[in-house]
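Readers of this paper often ask what the protein records in our data store actually look like. Below, we set out a record of this kind in full and without editing:
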Amino acid sequence: RAALLEAALGRFASYGYEQVGLRDIAADAGVDVALINRYFGTKAKLFALTISRNMSFAFLLDGPRDELGERLAAYVMQKDASSAELAPLLAQIRSAASPEAGQIFKKQLEQSFIDPLAEWLGGKDAQERAGLIASELTGLATMRIVLGIDVLNGSQTTGLVVRVGKTLQAYIDG
């Protein structure tokens, strides 16, 4: 079961939902494809479980409120495509165009990030502000990691963290 989850995460993060076959996942795990159905039921259920792993961002909320924007920006700016922590996000981003995977992605993002962040933010338009923060961070991760935009991957990311952090902080402060 664990080997299948790891293989699925690797495949979905690299290729996206539509391009991954269950036989590929089973082969990567070194097991018979029938075990996927036995343990997970469907590809959609396997995908949902795969992307839900390591999706708790509550630790980022620890610390001063007025520094959260920079903490969030730094978290994304310090990661690269090989980061195991970002594999579920990469799987989601690379799979979002699929109607089935897109709905799973939406639900997971709302449950694991937007809703808890909105509750933490509180105040007027908290849900909207949390959605905007998620949008900024997902866009930054996509541009940096999926597309590999050079200017966002240079050695001088400290200035970028400060700039992005200020934008995020504006949403945080309302």
DSSP finds nine helices and no strands in the chain. The two ends are 44 Å apart (CA to CA).
